[in-house]
Write the structure tokens for this entry.
Amino acid sequence: MKNKRILVTGADGMVGSYVNDVFSDHDLYLTDLVDLSEDCVYLDIRDPAAVMDEFQKIKPDLVLHLAAATDVDRCQLEPDWAHSVNSIGTQNVALACQETNALLVYISTGNVFSGKKETEYNEFDNPGPMNVYGESKLAGERIVTSLLNRYYIVRAGWMIGGGAKDKKFVGKIASMIVDGDSSLKAVNDKYGSPTYARDLLNGISKLVDTGYYGLYHMVNPGIASRYQISEVLRDVLEYPDLEIESVSSEHFPSPAPRIRMEALRNYKLELLGCDWMRPWEEALQDYVISELLPILL
């Protein structure tokens, strides 16, 4: 990919933390709503005029639309918030891409499916979200496809990464393991595909070079439960005697329903000979050793 002018929304989030490294050869314009770092400017994607003004000022070649409402339980409790960010916010970004002829990459999720399938979902399976988060992200997908001809919709899985910013499952469990927490419990009856944020961006950087526009799944291949992820973390961190209790999802009740099967298969990438993603166990080990251990120990 030759040097491009790239605008990034949600640049101070987990995935955004790798943008500078992965896209270092390009002119980057980083925006976010919260947690602004020195090189990141404020942009509320819910404000259509502000979005259009920023796009017309920058005139990006490529837009990495990473900004999203990802708190699944808050989305369930506050559907207006979920749709204002994931649906209307995406519409504002897509319309600005339409106006400036920018290529859009929109990050979506396996939550667009019902979870009733016995194995991984591929791009040709019909969506049927079971929670508000999934509904709002699917609405964003449909808005992108209705407004643009040049786009990549990339569905990711259970996101891992972020290093010091990691407040999600992997970061929390790794901290508990290192602290010697004896009350570790992990769910064994819900399944997904871990997705290392750095690998995701590396894959996207290659995908946008292909010109094969459309919808793709991009996860680190394989099916995992939270319990299996915890076991790998324990092994990588070298705490073999630490017990982790395997429990059902009923042990952790939540406002938003969690689907049973959220795992994805990179089927279209496989068919095109473009599946660059490594197995989730390898990606998780790499992340823990290179980014989490220096922080935890």
Remarks:
- The first strand starts at residue 5 and ends at 9.
